[in-house]
Amino acid sequence: MGQQFKTVPYTLKHENMRYSKDMLLESDSGFMMPFELDKNNSVPVILDYGQQTHPNTGEMFFHKGVDFALSEKPLFGIATGTVKGYGEEGLHDKFIIVSYGNYEVEYGHLSECYVKYGDTVKASQHIASSGPFLHVGVRFQGQDMNPFEFLDMIFSNIKHLSTCKKTRTPFMDDFGVIVPSSYDNEMDEIEKLMSRWLPSYYNEINNKSYVSSTRISGNLQSLLSQAAEENLYYEVCPTVSNPLGLSPKGVNVASKILDLLIEDFLAFVVLRFNVYPESWSKDRCEDFSDGLVKDGLVVDPLSDMQPDIRSYDIKRVASIYFDTSGSRVWTKAWFNGSDKGEHAIEINRDMAIKFNKNEISRDVWLSRFFPKQMQNVRKAVSEAKMQVFGIKQ
Predict the structure, then answer these.
(1) Residues 6+ apart with CB under 8 A from 209
(2) 255 three-state secondary structure
(3) Angle at 52 between CA 75 and CA 129, to 5 degrees
(4) How confident is the model over 263-280, as pLDDT tens digits?
(5) Is beta strand 81-89 parallel, antiparallel or unpaired with respect to 66-68?
(6) Distance CA 155, CA 159 (A)
(7) Residue of 85, 103, 97 lying closest to 142 (CA atoms)
(8) Which of 159, 186, 216, 237 is spaced 20 to 30 A from 267 at the CA atom?
């Protein structure tokens, strides 16, 4: 390829593009751009996507990718994926194709390949080196798409994740200090959860299939109002990482906002995938789940009914809860008029249906899901009958 192509700058921009749920890419190893960007996040483009003029023949043709002026540069895995193609051919010389979920990404005009067909790759893994320039093509479910749309999504994911690292909080660039969070000790685990489910979280917020609790929304509004009353906004020049222009005076407010945003993301992951940070104890997981009930993120279909909790021995009542999507169900019980009740236990929908149809008696239900508590009830009832009536059971 002896011809010298004119290069033009192209800056990757975070456009907040909207993707349907099946277009979002999830990756347990995080995300990485296929090549290193310069300090301005720009790359030189030789030939763009779409209708182009062929640099050799001058004829118009449709270019199904983007050619970058990246000579002998390291190329990286973008996310967790599998090598689906490898070889040499006339159009793109040496090439590899890596499958990332519904996406296939082709690197062409390579000088070296460090992976082979069938290999699993991870984000940031060095998988190849470019030759005199680099061709990148992207297909979604077999259909060609503009690689820049895909790269913008990857770049957006990287930016979102970087705001949650304890060494790079959203406001650190302007504060010159680390904004503390109540989740600092679990941040490495939380980052792993975000690398996998943050795109789904943002997508469900955008299409309103997930709605934050009234408590979290109200607290965020209160904090923002508090910052306005204290004149914390625009003390420094606003940036992408600090759009409100907060200064070091606003560290306390920023820390509280960061806590709420992380808490809301964790609530989404628990509700949708029943996953908690690995370091959390069983009690902390149960307390967090109870908080979802209090916040109204799970609803009790029996809340409008007046359950019959009258009993000559010990009062006891059971109820069931669905999450807002109706896909997960929990049961909860109260004994002897307890306000807090027992920790909720997740059950399957078939059991919930039987409960609603009264096909399972209260005590059978409680004995199944709260056996220790029911054992104590029977013991107390037996002792009471012995004392009052002289009846031994």
Answers:
(1) 325
(2) helix
(3) 10
(4) 999 999 999 888 899 899
(5) unpaired
(6) 6
(7) 103
(8) 159
pLDDT for res 111: 92
Residue 135 has phi, psi (to 5 degrees) of -105, 130
Label residues 140-158 b or e (16+ Cβ within 10 Å = b).
beeeebebbebbbbbbbbb
Sign of the torsion angle spanned by Cα atoms 267, 124, 184, 186: positive
Beta carbons within 8 Å of 221's beta carbon, 6+ residues apart: none
Q: What is the pLDDT of residue 365?
A: 92
Instruction: Say whether pTM exceeds 0.70.
Output: no
Strand partners, 144: 139
Q: Phi first, then psi: what are they for 9, rounded to 5°?
A: -75, 140
Round to whole Å and give the CA distance between 175 and 242.
9
Strands (E), 185-307: 298-299
| Beta-bridge partners for 42 | 11
- Cα angle vertex 36, ends 35, 42, to 5°? 100
Q: Which residue has 């054992």 as its token pair?
A: 375
Confidence of residue 169 (pLDDT cuts 50, 70, 90): very low
- For 26-83, the pLDDT digits (tens) are 787 888 889 887 666 667 888 888 888 877 777 888 888 888 888 888 999 999 999 9
Say if CB 80 and CB 121 are below 8 A apart: yes
Distance of CA 340 to the CA centre of its chain: 31
Of the candidates 78, 75, 76, which has an alpha carbon nearest to the alpha carbon of residue 30? Answer: 78
Structure tokens at 346: 């997740």
Which three-class secondary structure state does DSSP give residue 122? coil
Residues 6+ apart with CB under 8 A from 187: 164, 165, 166, 181
Using an 8 Å Cβ cutoff, are 26 and 199 in contact? yes
Distance CA 190, CA 43 (A): 31
pLDDT digits (tens, 9 = 90+) for 204-233: 887 788 889 999 999 998 888 888 888 887
Report how many helices (DSSP H) and strands (DSSP E) the chain contains, helices first: 9, 16
* 168: its two tokens: 């790079």
Tokens representing 172 are: 């650190």
- Count other C-beta atoms under 10 Å from residue 95's C-beta: 20
